[in-house]
Amino acid sequence: MTVTVAIGAQFGDEGKGHIVDHLSSEADLTVRFQGGPNAGHTIRIGDRTVILHQLPAGILHSRCTAVCGPGMVIDPFGLTEEIREVREKGLFLGRLVLSERCHVILPHHRLQDAWEEGLRGKDALGTTGRGIGPAYMDRVGRMGVRLADLKRPEILGPKLELLYRAKPYLAGHPDLPPKERLLTDLLRVGNELSAHIQPTESLLWQAVARDDEVLLEGAQSTLLDIDFGTYPFLTSSHGTSAGALTGTGLPPQSVSEVLGVLKAYATRVGGGPFPTEAKGADGDRLREKGGERGATTGRPRRCGWLDLVLLRYAVHLNGMTQLAVTKVDVLGGEPQVPVAVAYHLPDGRESTLEPPALAEDLALVEPIWRFLPGWEEFTPTLRERIAREGHYALPRELRHFLSFVSRETGVPVTRVGYGPSREETLELPLGVLESARSLAPWPGGSS
Ligand code: IMP
Question: Are strands 197-198 and 95-99 parallel, antiparallel or unpaired?
Answer without folding.
Answer: parallel
